[in-house]
Write a structure and sequence with these properties.
This protein has about 475 residues and is mainly alpha-helical. The chain contains 21 helices and no strands. The two termini are about 20 Å apart.
Length: about 475
Amino acid sequence: MSEIESASIAARLDRLPPSRTIWTIITLISLGGLFEFYDLFFTGYVAPGMIKSGLFSAQSLGIFASLSSIRVAGFGTFVFSTFAGLWVGVVLLGHLPDRFGRRPVFTWSLVWYVTCTAIMAFQQTGAMLNVWRFIAGLGFAVQLITIDTYISELIPGAERGRAFSINQFITFSVVPLVALLAWLLVPISPLGLDGWRWVVLIGSVGAAVVWLLIRKIPESPRWLALEGRVDEAEAVIAMIERKVTAETGKPLPPPEPVAAHEHGKGRFREIFSGGYGRRTAMLSVFNMAQVIGFYGFAAWVPTLLIARGITLTHSLEYSLIIAIANPVGPLLGTLFADRVERKRQIMLGLTIMGLAMIAFSQASNPALLIVLGVLFTLAANVMSYAYHNYQAELYPTRIRARAIGFVYSWSRIAAAFAGLAIGCFLNAGGVPAVAIFIAIAMVVGIVVIGVFGPATKGISLERINS
């Protein structure tokens, strides 16, 4: 019975017209992810301040100092700890949204982030800084998975692309803020506390405020129905339908005939079986490739600018200008997100990222460096919203969160080691060596998506996974 109800509710969701009700839910979910992106992106912007504080000296790093044997810049250990925590988090906790629901995991993972990141801000050694960075990553890793799952299940199929572009427009809007705060605070020590610590603490306070706003987001009716909680699913979808009808002032169109529906309980092994096995392999390789470019630039941009001869103060200033482009990419995407096939958006984004990074490595004029940094950022964020949408579409509701968690985990572990690798390449060959590393990764991502990725534009989740 739950299988039939699940298909019926999916059809009722997919026939909904654009409405303030649905977009309010999407906005609240996006606000929940706002400070996850704040956390991910402050990594690069606070780096000069952390280095200036002496946190990455051999004595301060303790056991992490052993990495100096492979000539890794000390800050690389912080990047490594960030993404190692994210990787372990998605591997160990990625199944939780499928087991306990999207809503509770979404809200309480934010509490984990607030607590652990605030503790991290007061650490006095590089070793403990890295430990708490790792612990914080365990919690907020699972929220990033849940957001993709949540949005894909709530939004009608014809608007999924736009929903993900709006989601990332909202979440990436925080990047200019963190860049501005770093520019203002990192060089100074207000009230005797290092400026980078203020940047971290402001993020924790902001996340706590957002938590108060998102507590009333409804559970995914698709997940409720598939779990056999039909009455709860019916209550959620009926509430949404009533509000949408009141907004539009006319009856809703009838649902499309149910041609495909989900069945059975999800099992982790299913993501490796049948057609899903091929998708899992494709997305795992893609995630390892794309993250090398995306975070390879974002987490290191102030340091890369310094390596191109820009001073610390100007590096943070130019990074701020580049950061302003972050929300613009997804905003531009609203114009074509549901018109252009998802995989093509991804491939074009990767192509521009690779070319812009090579040009960046050869430039020395500050204005040109900024232009290339902005171009890279715009392309990266179009690619980002498109692939977050894409990988959520390629699995059914019963295994969506754990499948996203598994394929996403490869981007986390790749980013962890890419942070170490970029430190090595930067020491050995400067920015040109980093650019070659990133460009090769972009080519790999283009090939796997282009050759093995199926089409999804405008197709219901149930039909994609029938």
